[in-house]
């Protein structure tokens, strides 16, 4: 039998490794800026191939690209598979499986939220003098007022509580309920009714920056709902007509609208970066953009975005739902490079806390990756718990170059490869000039230690390309509902070749690791929807907190 004493000892050694030790950079002599301004910009349901620094993208994102070219393109950045889990991971530094947030998203009438026993990023930052603001999508619970942003450490909030809204009416229909969802702090506001939400979130972010005292550290989380499908179940793709008219080079009408949604957000990102430049705050700032998860290309809230060339989509165990576009800039990370270091969105909280001089008082799963970002120190990360969902019965786990998948979502309906596009870019010949004319480029270029040539930019763009491993004769078809699958994910990023039968010991080891992690995890805190109690008709047509605080079910 192949499970001999040596193999058992190997399992014991691996199980004894800790994934909680974060490298602080001290042994590398790495310097930390003092309480920098922190700007996180999130895209919503945006695919890996929905940025034009990917050569197969069909449309332009010059401002996002400029941030990456002037700073770093994070080509192996992972998030969680859905909106709520991903946002909880960002703000807690913990895997959703360890805080009970791993099961689906918080629907409009689900009576729970991000657990109140967790101290989240803005609460830590406020303690050391940061002004904290969130603009846009929350999606971490609102059934009780205590779950809402201004009760969780944010000084201000302007946006919506639910998972999606109509871009113009700001209504959020869900089955038997349909309510208005837009707030300024705790108060319902109609000030932007009829205005495209992407514009509203950009303008509010600009106002916050203009009104901010640069001598005080700023934490701004701008959480766009673009390019997530609109919540109206009629016209899921919404963009102003003048934005659509600019995308003349895209023939397919749905793709044209989607591209216009992305373009409006991209320009807003450029405006935000430019405003930081006007306020002379960039010299002490960190700017990050990434998507909260991959795009859904089939099923609920499906759009025409692309996770190409990855397998799967949002709410799946595959790379298409997890590996997302991401770029970073700061005056201390001017590497002008494409980074292949492994990064997961739980890593941002411990990194920011280290920069702010704050020690966490609760466990954190992420790593301080400042040494990786500034000095190219290899990422300390060797493991990612993508998800272990005991309710839906699936797991997705990365460990030292191996990826294990057991079970899947939606009975395997979304386990294929989607979003293949012809690499047709009519702007390709002028691409470097288009990027260099963007607002973000103009704001960031003065900080660059050297001018980035067109040739170098094209080389960086080419280096982001993901090469799929061709089928190999010794692999078998992956049927995760029948048996666990194993991939050499570094060599096989498109998850084509299941090698579980060739490496039975490694498959068994991964199974043991997942079972150990599941035993240590927190059971999902999710609860079924209560449509009667949350019905907006009881609250002047709006979504608001509704839970009876005397009911122990909701405590």
List descriptors:
555 residues, alpha/beta, 10-stranded mixed sheet, 4-stranded antiparallel sheet, 19 strands, globular
- Proportion of β residues? 5-15%
Number of helices: 15
Strand order of the largest sheet: 9-8-5-4-10-1-11-13-2-14
> What is the terminal separation in angstroms?
51 Å
- Tell me about the largest β-sheet: 10 strands, mixed
Residue share in helix: 25-40%
Computed structural class: alpha/beta
Low-confidence stretches: 1-6, 17-23
The gross shape turns out to be globular
Radius of gyration: 22 Å
The overall average pLDDT, rounded, is 92
Number of strands: 19
Report on the structure:
With 555 residues, the protein is α/β, with parallel strands linked by helices. The protein has 15 helices and 19 strands. The protein has helices at residues 5-16, 62-70, 83-92, 121-126, 197-211, 241-246, 253-278, 319-322, 348-356, 370-375, 431-436, 439-444, 454-463, 504-520, 531-534, and strands spanning 37-43, 72-74, 77-78, 131-137, 156-160, 171-174, 177-180, 183-184, 187-188, 218-223, 285-291, 323-324, 326-329, 337-339, 343-344, 383-389, 394-399, 402-406, 485-488. Helix 5 (197-211) packs parallel to helix 7 (253-278). The longest helix is centred in the middle third of the chain and has 26 residues, at 253-278. It is globular, with a radius of gyration of 22 Å. The relative contact order is 0.20.
Topology diagram in text:
Elements: H1 5-16, E1 37-43, H2 62-70, E2 72-74, E3 77-78, H3 83-92, H4 121-126, E4 131-137, E5 156-160, E6 171-174, E7 177-180, E8 183-184, E9 187-188, H5 197-211, E10 218-223, H6 241-246, H7 253-278, E11 285-291, H8 319-322, E12 323-324, E13 326-329, E14 337-339, E15 343-344, H9 348-356, H10 370-375, E16 383-389, E17 394-399, E18 402-406, H11 431-436, H12 439-444, H13 454-463, E19 485-488, H14 504-520, H15 531-534
Helix pairs in contact: 5-7
